[in-house]
Structures are given as structure tokens and as C-alpha cells.
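PROTEIN DESIGN WORKSHEET
SECTION A - STRUCTURE
LENGTH: 137
C-ALPHA CELLS:
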């Protein structure tokens, strides 16, 4: 009986952790003992830029563990449009923000992104994807 519990427990814990990923759909989280950075992706929203409605999203560095954030990339696309995503990248710890125009009311927008950090000696790149986050606006 004890042996079955020992075998079943890792399976249950693994299943629970797999389900936990959906709680962080807009975040990439580095493992606590691993170098790297955590990144957040904002949900797409409509904003006004010089009187023109646009859709925007942002990728931001949340926290780093023994690393320095070196690149953030934010991307937006209209779901099913068949066009490549529009992406903006920023070097260093600065947030990357992309503005998508023209805004189409009722369209479904998909935001995604990526963040990269440098860590260690010799330095290595540690990158994490964030998203996608899908919103109908």
C-alpha cells in the first residue's frame, strides 16, 4: 500500500502543476533556483494615439534572479487575418509596447511576446515566451 502512494503522489503533483500553468497565461515565470527573469504580458486594450484608436499590449520585466534583462518583444495580430504579427522590441530592462492600427471593432486580437536575460559567467541568454492572450475588442 505504501508503495502505491509513493508512485501516485508524483503523478498527482505533476498533474496539479501542469494545471497551474493556465493561472499564469500572461506571465513567464523563471524557476526560483534558475537564473533568468519573469515577464508579464498585458491584455490587448484599445487606446487613443493622437486621436486615432489603436490596440496596444506591453511586455514588461517583472523580476530577475541572478540575471539582467536585455530584451523584451511585444507582438499583436488579428486572429485569422493571415498576416504576420506586428512586433516591437526594446533592449535593456525597458518595457516593449506595440501599437496596432487600424483598430477593427469586434475583431479578436492576439498578444504574445518574449523576454531575454543574460546570466552567468560566461554569459548565456535565458529567454521565455509569454502569452498568447486573446481578447475580442
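SECTION B - SEQUENCE
RESIDUE ASSIGNMENT:
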Amino acid at each position: 500500500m505504501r508503495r502505491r502512494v509513493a508512485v501516485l503522489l508524483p503523478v498527482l503533483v505533476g498533474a496539479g502543476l501542469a494545471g497551474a500553468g493556465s493561472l499564469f497565461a500572461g506571465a513567464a515565470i523563471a524557476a526560483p533556483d534558475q537564473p533568468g527573469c519573469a515577464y508579464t504580458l498585458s491584455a490587448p486594450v484599445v487606446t487613443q494615439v493622437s486621436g486615432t484608436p489603436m490596440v496596444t499590449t506591453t511586455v514588461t520585466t517583472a523580476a530577475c534572479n541572478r540575471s539582467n534583462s536585455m530584451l523584451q518583444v511585444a507582438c499583436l495580430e488579428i486572429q485569422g487575418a493571415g498576416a504576420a504579427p506586428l512586433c516591437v522590441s526594446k533592449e535593456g530592462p525597458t518595457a516593449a509596447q506595440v501599437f496596432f492600427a487600424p483598430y477593427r471593432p469586434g475583431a479578436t486580437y492576439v498578444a504574445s511576446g518574449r523576454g531575454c536575460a543574460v546570466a552567468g559567467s560566461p554569459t548565456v541568454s535565458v529567454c521565455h515566451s509569454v502569452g498568447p492572450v486573446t481578447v475580442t475588442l
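SECTION C - NOTES
The beta strands are 27-28, 36-41, 45-49, 52-65, 67-78, 86-91, 96-100, 108-119, 124-136.
Residues 36-136 form a domain with the Immunoglobulin-like fold (CATH 2.60.40.10).
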